Each structure stands twice: as C-alpha cells, then as structure tokens.
Amino acid sequence: MKIAIIGAGNMGGAIARGIVQGSKVKAVDITVANPSNGKLDALKAFNPEINVTNNNQEAIENADIVLLAVKPWLVKSVLENISFDAKKQILVTVAAGVAFTEYCKIIGESATIFRVIPNTAISLLESTTLIASYNASKEQEQFMLDLFDEMGLAMIINESQMSAATALTSCGIAYVLKYIHAAVEAGVEMGIYPKDAQKMVAQSVKGAAELLLQNDTHPAIEIDKVTTPGGLTIKGLNELEHAGFSSAIIRAMKASR
Ligand SMILES: NC(=O)C1=CN([C@@H]2O[C@H](COP(=O)(O)OP(=O)(O)OC[C@H]3O[C@@H](n4cnc5c(N)ncnc54)[C@H](OP(=O)(O)O)[C@@H]3O)[C@@H](O)[C@H]2O)C=CC1
Ligand SMILES: O=C(O)[C@@H]1CCC=N1
Q1: Most buried residue among 128, 152, 185, 206 by CB atoms closer than 10 A?
Q2: Residue 48 has what pLDDT?
Q3: How much is the pLDDT for 98?
Q4: If you measure from the C-alpha of residue 12 to the centroid of ligand 1, how many angstroms do you get, rounded to a whole number?
Q5: Could you give a GO molecular-function term held by this entry (predicted)?
C-alpha cells in the first residue's frame, strides 16, 4: 500500500509521522509533497526512508492512496493540477468543510473518497479522528479505521454529522486548551508559578477525560462526586453558570460548525 501525502503542514506532517510509527504502511511507501523544503527536511530528519518531493504529480505516481492535506481553499486547484486516477486510486482528504459533492465535481462521482478530520493531538498519536466515506467498501473503511486508530481514537461517521463532530473534536481541542490557559492564569493570580499551574491543570483535564473514557460514566455523576454540599466546588460551579459557562461552550461549538 503506497500513500502520497500532499501538504506537509500541521496535519500532513503529523499524519506522515504517525503512519511511519504504525504497522499498516512502511516509511518507504510514503511520499510527501510540499512546495517549500523546510517541512520536508524535518520529515526526512524524522525518518530518512520517507520520500519527499516538491512535485505533487510525482508524489501521486504509483500511489494507492492520495491524502490531501492542504488548506480548504487550495483543494480545487491542487486536484485540478494532478492526474488523479479515480479507477485505481483512493482520495483521502483532511480539508475541513469541503463536502464529497465538491470532490465529485473535480474527480468524478465514481471515485472512492474519505473525509478524515483529526485534531492536533495526532502529533502525539492521541487524535480523535473522524472518518466519513463515499463509495468505499467495508474493507476500505476498516483499513482507514485501523490506520487512524494507530494515531489515537478513530470513528466512522456519516458525512451529515461531520460538521458538528468537527466542532466537538477538532475545533473543540482549542476550547479545552482555552480552559487550561484561563485556569493557569487564575493559578498565577493566586500565587502559583505558571509551569506548576499548567502541570496541575493539564493533569486535572487528563484525569477528568479518563474518568469518562474508562468508566463510561456521565459528567454530572462525576461532578456530583466532587461537590460537597456547602463546600468549595459548588461556589465555583455556580460562578461559572452565573457567567454563562455552559451557554458559552454550546454557542462556541455551534459557531464552529
Ligand atoms: N490544523 C488543524 O487542527 C486541522 C486542520 N484540518 C485541515 O487540514 C488541512 C491542512 O491544515 P494544516 O495542516 O493545519 O495547514 P498547514 O498550513 O499547516 O499545512 C498546509 C500545507 O500545505 C502546503 N501547500 C500549500 N500549497 C500547496 C500545494 N499547492 N501543493 C502541496 N502542498 C501545498 C503548505 O506548504 P507551505 O507552508 O510551504 O506553503 C503547508 O505545508 C486544512 O484543509 C484544514 O482544514 C483538519 C483538521 C484539523
Ligand atoms: O479551524 C479550522 O478550520 C481547522 C479545521 C478544524 C480544526 N482546525
């Protein structure tokens, strides 16, 4: 299985690094194309067996999978300037907000296409990766699921849920980081050194996530365990709601759709 990755930025670069650390595709079978050399040099330094090029067409020659990792507004021109073979090749795209119908207009309705939305934790193999398929067999879906499962948690969803799920996971990681940033600032105001505060808050967020993931419980149940009647936590929780915390999160998620 040979993969060409077009675009070596945050997503393309992290996916290339993630794939070579997994078991599904060998480094020699990955070719990454990017117009400038800095990110390609970094990939070569990470693993010299990864092939790199400045030429998109050269990258996709002999590729079974062409993975598009350019900005959404470049998708059309990049696809129009390569000879993608929809009979032999599978298109995988990470471009957010570009529907299957847009790709069909360029490469035809018979093509097999996957829309894949990771988040930036893919660089640590801790991504939540959403996968939607078009014209794919069950075997092809399973391969994509297995490939991205090695870089975190991958889920197959319908394209109709892609925008909402992208808001929760891919944009959502920024909201979690925003919470961490704000909490660290509170800690600093209360006299804790920033590095210590960041470690405390980040580990607390990780612990909260693990409680839900490992116990398959509900956030309200876990919150109830923390909250002593007349105690400290309820004072802060009520302050959050007076300031519109839940409403702000819901509005943020919906705005990111
Ligand atoms: N960042 C994120 O959290 C997520 C991003 N996405 C999607 O991933 C895609 C890429 O985003 P991201 O990785 O963050 O962006 P980056 O800007 O980090 O990466 C894009 C890469 O594409 C390269 N590029 C530009 N033009 C071309 C071209 N004509 N041919 C080949 N490569 C080209 C750029 O090279 P150079 O810098 O040299 O110009 C750059 O390395 C977007 O469509 C985005 O919607 C999806 C989920 C999450
Ligand atoms: O902000 C964005 O548009 C990209 C897509 C999802 C996460 N980052």
Answers
A1: 128
A2: 98
A3: 98
A4: 7
A5: pyrroline-5-carboxylate reductase activity
Sign of CA dihedral 157, 159, 161, 164: positive
Domain boundaries, the chain: 3-157, 165-255
Topology of domain 165-255, per CATH? ProC C-terminal domain-like fold (1.10.3730)
Beta strands across the sheet bearing 90-93:
51-53, 30-33, 3-6, 65-68, 90-93, 112-117, 127-134, 152-156
Q: Which atom of ligand 2 is nearest to the CA of 174?
A: 7
Per-residue pLDDT tens digits for 106-137 = 999 999 999 999 999 999 999 999 999 999 99
Which residues of the chain fall below pLDDT 70? none
CB of 2 within 6 A of ligand 1: the answer is no
pLDDT for res 54: 98
Ligand number nearest to the C-alpha of 93: 1
**Ligand 1 contact via 14 beta carbon (within 6 Å):** no
- pLDDT at 82 (0 to 100): 98
114, β-bridge pairs:
92, 133
- Report the C-alpha gap between 219 and 157 in whole angstroms: 23
Q: What is the ipTM of this complex?
A: 0.98
Binding residues for NADPH: 56
Fold type of domain 3-157: Rossmann fold (3.40.50)
Pocket test for ligand 2, best of 123, 127, 171 (most atoms within 8 A of CB): 171
Q: 180 CA distance to ligand 2 centroid (A)?
A: 19
Helix (H) or strand (E) holding 100: helix 100-107
